[in-house]
Amino acid sequence: MTKLEGVLPAIRNMKDFEKVLVSNHENIIFLETRLSQIKSLVKHAHDHHKNVFLHVDLVQGLKVDEYGLEYLVNDIHVDGIVTTKANVITMAKKHNITGIQRLFALDSHALDHNLKICKRVRPDYIEVLPGVIPSILKEIHEETEIPVIAGGLIRTEEDVNRALDGNAIAVTTSNRKLWEF
């Protein structure tokens, strides 16, 4: 399992990708892309010694089933995946890649439901959105004993610090200004 910590750049476009390639970040997350772009993007990132995590739910043209994940692992060589789907985390574990379960903390009912799923599936990491509520980050970590990543609505250095103080081991953000924090 790849160790994740600190600020993790979340890539939305080619300008972001070009910027992160020359950064000191070891790990990057592709949020939105097309199936036809993935192979060259991952190869280019690997050539620059970056670990690539792909938010598989947001890849246009990819069906995230056993065969789709097999393609990402064997042909594309992604280092890990991000998904909201428990069955995809299970498949990622089967293929020995890092699985990040994205969890939306919308209300108490959604949180309880998602915690049950995470306890059953045991992803490598849980990404919590929005990631600006330290008490919820801490609760999720204590309840599951799974490392927590804060994501969503992280806008300032103060947001990053609060998330990390709330037991998050990392923060994902597409805000380029925070990548160097």
Automatic annotation (TrEMBL):
One of its GO terms (molecular function) is RNA binding. GO terms for biological process: glycerol metabolic process; positive regulation of DNA-templated transcription. Keywords: Glycerol metabolism, RNA-binding, Transcription, Transcription regulation. The keyword Metal-binding does not apply. Regulates expression of the glpD operon. In the presence of glycerol 3-phosphate (G3P) causes antitermination of transcription of glpD at the inverted repeat of the leader region to enhance its transcription. Binds and stabilizes glpD leader mRNA. PANTHER family: GLYCEROL UPTAKE OPERON ANTITERMINATOR REGULATORY PROTEIN (PTHR35787). This is Glycerol uptake operon antiterminator regulatory protein. It comes from Bacillus yapensis.
